[in-house]
Amino acid sequence: MENRIRKPTHPGELIREDLLLETRMSQTQLARLMGVSRRTVSEIVNARRRVTPDIAFRLARVFNSTPEMWLNMQQAVDLWEARSIHGHEYARIHPVPQAFHSR
């Protein structure tokens, strides 16, 4: 896993800063197209909500992309946050010796 100093871009930031501006679409319009509440979209674009598989499929349909793209972006953020919070704990975990695996 790569050590990143800068937090990866949350998928909501991409939606807010690029896609909504390019398409001149409001959060309300996006919510209608996705079939979710405006609050859901607002929480995503303000990085207060994760992109779930369900949301990833919806975003992929609206923006002609793939659910994997959205989930990969979210996963990068999740892994960065986990490492930032628990990295010192992870450093204390040692792998099982290879000899154990060969039995």
Assembly of the depicted chains: single chain
Distance from N terminus to C terminus (CA atoms, Å) equals: 28 Å
What is the string of SSEs from the N terminus onward?
HHHHHH
Q: Could you name the ranges where pLDDT drops below 50 across 5 or more consecutive residues?
A: none
**In percent, how helical is the residue content?**
55-70%
Task: Sum up the overall morphology in one term.
Answer: elongated
The CATH class name reads: Mainly Alpha
CATH topology: 434 Repressor (Amino-terminal Domain)
Q: Helix- and strand-based class?
A: mainly alpha
Which second-level CATH architecture applies? Orthogonal Bundle
Tell me the major beta sheet.
none
Count of structural domains: 1
Beta content comes to under 5%
Radius of gyration: 18 Å
Query: Helix count, per DSSP?
Result: 6
Average of the residue pLDDT scores: 94
The total count of strands amounts to 0
